[in-house]
Amino acid sequence: MTPPPPSRPIELPEGRLLIDGEWRPATSGATFTTTNPATEAVSGTLAKASVEDVDLAAKAARRAFDEGPWPRMAPSERARILWRAAALIRENADALALCEALDMGKPVSEGKAVDVSFTADLFEYYAGWATKVTGETLPGLPGFFVHTLREPVGVVATITPWNFPLLLLSWKLAPALAVGCTCVVKPASLTPHSALKLAALLQEAGVPPGALNVITGPGGSIGDAIVRHTAIDKIAFTGEVSTGQRILREAAATMKRVTMELGGKSPNIVFADADLDAAAKGAIAGIFYNKGEVCAAGSRILVEESVRAQFVELLAARAGKMRHGDPTDPATRLGPQASRSQVDKILEYVKRGKAEGATLVCGGAHVPIGGKGYFVQPTVFDGVTGAMTIAKEEIFGPVAAVIPFTGEEEAVRIANATEFGLAAGIWTRDIGKAHRVARAVRAGTVWINTYNVYDPAAPFGGYKQSGFGRELGSAAIESYTELKSVIQSLR
Fold this sequence. Notes:
By secondary structure, the protein is of the alpha/beta class. Helix 2 (75-91) runs antiparallel to helix 4 (108-129) and helix 2 (75-91) crosses helix 6 (193-205). It is globular, with a radius of gyration of 23 Å. The strands form six sheets. The chain has a seven-stranded mixed β-sheet, with helices on both faces. The protein has a six-stranded mixed β-sheet with strand order 9-8-7-10-11-21, with helices on both faces. It has two domains: 17-262 and 466-487, Aldehyde Dehydrogenase, Chain A, domain 1 (3-Layer(aba) Sandwich), CATH 3.40.605.10; 267-456, Aldehyde Dehydrogenase, Chain A, domain 2 (3-Layer(aba) Sandwich), CATH 3.40.309.10. It is 38% helix and 20% strand.
């Protein structure tokens, strides 16, 4: 096997926006800073975009779509550019992983092995799709030739969250670019660096000016300006339910296409006949991976009553061995939460869990290192009921709520007793039971005897208030294209 190329640093103008192929300051000259969550020190100074910058970026993307080479390029050439981008992403793995560590506390080992690697996989996967977006010839009316065309939807604005800055951007950007869309990227203000660095790599790979634009800064007014802008055809959003609802209201005025991947309160169901050691290990990954800052986190761990005590002991033992550390250290496996406000939110939920009668088995405290950092202990609650706040609301942190059940029917009822429907896990040796429950649970992704496994070809998205539309796989191609029917008389 050929070894991967050595990683190299990325040179990028500090504090710049990317508009129409040029790195430039905000029109107002304003800047903002980001914070390293492990040290609480300033990690970067960036351009703070205004509504005027949004207008410039949207119009640049519009021109690039209406007049530029990207949508008109041979699909095979777009594919070659995306393949080059994937190679550059792998080559710059260390630098991209460092962005995530400094911005949101993701350990570099995790960022490199998971986020950067999957991002490169996605660009390779959708590079392959660039030449395979086709229509159909239909057996239509006699005397007519009827066929369909699948065309790029137009200008796509991506609005992405801070928990997987690089990865969730790539879920949107790779398929959009593959089919010939042009893009305006708005990363979360907490975590903008990987988006800027990815954009620089895409430029280097050959994406032409205007086809990709990046604006940075706090949401609010610039987010509203993106959603309202008449030059933008589609919004691809991942984030909180309340923000998604606001985007939907604003997008209605211009009838934009919208896809939404929102929150979750996912059930991870452990039956008595499961391999309990494997289930405990999987549950740890399900809730404590990425410090619990995962929309699909298995935060409700449903355990069959006959093995609940044994399982909670296994879970607490594994959680107690997890240690925090500097996310830039390759040996670290558990980093800090992304922000101080996230720490405060998590601790408030811990307080409410105890007040409402749940049993705190382990964790539940802020544990700064050397007096600094947004580190929170992995936390396990037992004796949780569906009426408790920690069983109903998305905490977005390392807090597991263990809920007992008796029998398959009750497990399904508890699993579905939520306004969300993003993901679910099932642990059992009974394959029939596994598939019965998988069909009964209302969630967009169901894992059986595993958790948090993703594949570029497997669609991902939610039921209910977890959103609509699908990312990844061929479903994403449909999200970024329009279907046109062409009917021609043969008379």
